[in-house]
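Schema walk-through. Below, the input block comes first and the output block second. Nothing else is stored per chain. Lengths vary across the set, and this one has 225 residues.
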Amino acid sequence: MKILAEYGRDDLAKVYVVQLREQQVTEKTGQRYLIECVESVQPPLPLEKKWVLIVSSMFGCPVRCKMCDAGGDFSGCLTTEEILSQIDYLVRRRFPEGKPRTSKFKIQFARMGEPSLNPAVLDVLEELPRRYDTSMLHISVSSVAPDTGTSRMFFDRLLRIKQRYYTQGRFQLQFSLHTTNTMKRDELIPVKKWSFEEIATYGKRFYQPENGDKKITLNFAPIQG
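--- output ---
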C-alpha cells in the first residue's frame, strides 16, 4: 500500500489517493490499481465525539453512474485485506496504537465501487467487530441496488450480518436512487437494478425497529435542469 497523494485538512476532511498493488498500470491490460479513501469529522462535533472513514471496495466501478467520477475505468474488486488495509492505515495514522479514541467510529463503504458487487465487503463487515470496540463501531453501506445474482446474495447475507453484529442503530443502509423518475434513473444509473418496489420489499425485511435499527436512507443527486 502506497500513498500517492493527500488533499484536505486534518481538522475537517482528508482524501488519500492510494496505490494498493505493485503496479499502477499493467503493461498488458492497462489496468489501474488506484483507489481513494477518506477520513473526516462532522462539525460541530469534534473527532473525540465522531470520526468517519469512507473506503473504496473496487478499482473504479462498473456501474458508471453519470454523476460519479469513479466510473471511468474498472479494474476489478478489492480483496478483503485490501479493504481492511485502508481502514488500518487511516486508524493508525491518527491512533498509532490502533484503537480509535472517539465515541462514534463510523466506516462508510461509499467511495469507489459498488459494494454489493464485491462479496469481500461482507467478509470485512464480519472482521471489523473482532478488531474494534463494537460499542462505538457504526457501519454505512451505500448501493444503487444492481440486479445481479451476486448482489442478491450480498443483500441476503448483509441482513444476517447486520442482525448478528450491528443492532441498536449501528448500521445505516443507503440506496442511491438519485431520482424518482424511472426513465431518468435508467439514464443516470445505466445498469439493470432493483425496481422501487423491490427496494421497498427488501427494506421491510431489513429494517427492524424492535432491534433499534436506523431507517434506510435514500440518496438523491441534485441535478440542474
